[in-house]
Amino acid sequence: MALPILTVVCALGKQGRGVISAFLEDKAQLKVHIRALTSNPSSSSAQELAKNPNVSVVQVDLASLESTESAFQGSTYIFANTSFDGATLMAKGAKATEELESIHKLNITRAASRITTLKHLVWSTLPDAKEASGGKYYIPHFQSKPAGDRLVLDAESGLSDKTTFLRIGMYGSNLLRDPHTPIYSADMNTHTVQYPIRPDVKFGFIGDEVINTGIYVRAILEQPEKTIGRVLEGVADTLSCTEWAAIFQKVQDKLGSGSKVSFKECSLKEYEEKWGEMGTEVGRMMTYFNEFGERSFTISTWGWPIVTAKDLGIKHDLRSTEETLLGLEWPTHD
């Protein structure tokens, strides 16, 4: 008897890879065949994935409704994640990048609504910060998602009674990438984590964005009675930027760098001047966190209940931000 199909959108990204790994593990209770969707099936990572007999790698163009619907045919489960493409952001700006991701999310929703075999859609998304703040905060990589969310909620789509919204918290590993990279002073041998947010404000972190996303999605699909029609807060721990910097201090201690790490609050203008367009994008997000704190990922849920890792019995399975950062490869300064 053929296994049910779990289709994973953006299968080669961090979240997609985590979902695939979680369902290939022996301890997965729900046995599925994985259909891994990618725009580039000839890449080395796609070809390596295709070696697994329980994985089919399929090409998809998310900008095409026809291509997306074809890739979804026969799916019992779909994990849908989209990306706010950094290359498009730098080449064409935030508005064009937002519009591109919105198109992808709308096509995924429309295509999923036409799949008669679909039982459960797991929709990786973020809050509508603009709506939640009464228009005060406009964050393009947040605002690229609500159009797809609203279409899921529309009764005509037939998806609201098949869907779980998963809101993934901040990636702790962002400190490896600009504009999050701590500012290094060679003269002082110091690292400064700098954002436009107060040092004591706490907000949600996913921990290990690959492993933990897989744990979350597996729990969602294995416990539909607890997750359909709900918003799952994808958070492993809640930290302030001061605490995040303290973890990075442990990284430096492990490296034996002798560097001292601190957190410094700056203004949004200062952050934008240093990092340009990416600084505007991330800086706006941090000012939103500055106001909403621990509620940042759980507001504006359209009346749907919030579910947590504790509710699903997976809290102790998650890898913390500290464990994650200490296990990564970090650049060193000569």
From TrEMBL:
SUPFAM superfamilies: NAD(P)-binding Rossmann-fold domains
Domain of life per record: Eukaryota
InterPro entries: NAD(P)-bd_dom_sf, NmrA-like, NmrA-like_oxidored
Domain NmrA-like, residue spans: 6-295
Keywords attached to this entry: NADP
Pfam families: NmrA
Cited PANTHER family: NITROGEN METABOLITE REPRESSION PROTEIN NMRA FAMILY MEMBER, NMRA-LIKE DOMAIN-CONTAINING PROTEIN
Family: Belongs to the NmrA-type oxidoreductase family.
Protein name: NmrA-like domain-containing protein
Organism taxonomic ancestry: Eukaryota, Fungi, Dikarya, Ascomycota, Pezizomycotina
